[in-house]
C-alpha cells in the first residue's frame, strides 16, 4: 500500500462541498446504520485511545456518533430512535471535525469540516508522530483495501484527478476494526438513556455542549472490551477529566467556529488560532525523506 497525501487530506476532511455532483460521496449514509450527524469521514478511536487522549488533556478533540437504523435493534432517546446494543444506545467515538479554512486538491480556500488535528496550511496531521495517533489513521486505507471497499483516495481521484492511491495492495496486517470483537473496545453502549436524552438531539443538530461530549467520552473510557460493562467509578473520573481538559484544541475549536461565521477563509490564520495556543507544528513536504 502506498498513498500520495500531499495537498489532499481527503480522509481528514468532509469535502462533499467540493464534489456536489458525486452521488457516491455520501457513502457513510448508506446501509442499515446511518449517522445522526451530518459529517463525513469520522475516524473512530478505541477505548484505549480515548483514555490516552484524556491523559493528554485532549478530550475536546473527540466526538460521539450515534446511528439511526431502519431494521434492527433500537431504543428511543427523547424523540430520537437510535441503534442499540442490548437495549442501550450504541455509539462510536471519533476525531472531531470543526470548520477550518483549507485548500485541498488545488482548490481555492474555503471553510470545510476538518479534523481538529489537521494543520490547514500543510494539510498534515499535528499528532502524526505522537503516542496518541489513532490506529484508524495510521492504517488507512488498509482496512478498505482488505475489504475491497472504495477508499477516500479513489474518491479524490475520481472527483479531482491525480494519483492518490499509488499502490492498492492491502498490507498483510490489515485488520478491519469493527468486527465482532469491537463491542466495548470500539463500539460502545451508553448505560443510562435518561442521562443523554437532550445530548443526543444536540449531537444530531451539531450543537452538543462540552458536558455532552464529556458524557460519551467518559462512557467509552470506562467500557470493558468484549462486554457492555461500564465502570461507574471510572466513568465519573473520566467525565471529570474531560470537563477539566485544557489544551490548545478546545480554544481552537471555539475560535474556528466563530471565525467561520462570516470571515474569509485564510489558512494562514492557523498560526494564531492553533500555533499560538501550543499546537504541535507539522514538517511540511519539502524535507520528506522519500523526496
TrEMBL record:
Q: Please give the InterPro entries that the UniProt record associates with this protein.
A: DUF7531
* One Pfam family named in its UniProt record: DUF7531
Region of interest (Disordered), ranges = 254-291
Superkingdom to which the source organism belongs = Archaea
**Name of the featured protein:** YkgJ family cysteine cluster protein
Record organism:
Halosimplex rubrum
Give the organism's phylogenetic lineage. Answer: Archaea, Methanobacteriati, Methanobacteriota, Stenosarchaea group, Halobacteria
Amino acid at each position: 500500500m502506498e498513498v500520495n497525501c500531499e495537498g489532499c487530506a481527503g480522509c481528514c476532511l468532509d469535502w462533499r462541498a467540493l464534489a456536489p455532483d458525486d452521488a457516491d460521496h455520501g457513502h457513510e449514509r448508506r446501509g442499515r446504520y446511518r449517522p445522526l450527524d451530518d459529517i463525513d469521514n469520522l475516524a473512530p478511536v478505541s477505548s484505549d485511545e480515548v483514555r490516552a487522549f484524556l491523559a493528554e488533556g485532549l478530550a475536546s478533540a473527540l466526538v460521539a456518533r450515534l446511528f439511526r437504523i431502519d431494521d434492527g435493534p433500537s431504543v428511543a432517546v427523547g424523540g430520537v430512535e437510535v441503534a442499540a446494543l442490548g437495549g442501550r444506545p450504541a455509539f462510536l467515538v471519533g476525531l472531531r471535525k470543526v470548520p477550518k479554512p483549507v485548500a485541498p486538491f488545488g482548490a481555492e480556500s474555503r471553510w470545510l469540516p476538518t479534523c481538529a488535528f489537521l494543520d490547514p496550511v500543510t494539510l498534515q496531521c499535528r499528532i502524526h508522530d505522537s503516542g496518541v495517533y489513532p490506529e484508524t489513521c495510521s492504517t488507512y486505507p488498509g482496512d478498505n483495501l482488505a475489504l475491497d471497499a472504495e477508499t477516500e483516495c479513489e474518491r479524490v481521484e475520481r472527483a479531482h484527478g491525480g494519483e492518490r492511491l499509488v499502490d492498492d495492495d492491502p498490507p498483510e496486517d490489515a485488520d478491519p476494526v469493527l468486527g465482532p470483537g469491537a463491542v466495548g473496545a470500539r463500539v460502545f453502549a451508553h448505560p443510562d438513556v435518561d442521562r443523554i436524552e437532550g445530548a443526543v438531539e444536540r449531537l444530531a443538530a451539531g450543537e452538543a455542549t462540552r458536558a455532552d461530549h464529556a458524557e460519551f467520552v467518559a462512557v467509552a473510557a470506562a467500557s470493558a472490551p468484549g462486554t457492555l460493562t461500564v465502570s461507574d467509578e471510572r466513568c465519573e473520573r473520566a467525565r471529570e477529566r474531560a470537563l477539566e481538559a485544557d489544551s490548545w484544541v478546545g480554544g481552537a475549536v471555539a475560535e474556528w467556529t466563530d471565525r467561520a461565521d462570516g470571515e474569509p477563509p485564510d489558512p494562514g490564520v492557523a498560526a494564531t488560532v492553533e500555533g499560538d495556543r501550543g499546537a504541535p507544528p507539522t514538517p511540511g513536504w519539502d524535507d520528506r525523506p522519500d523526496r
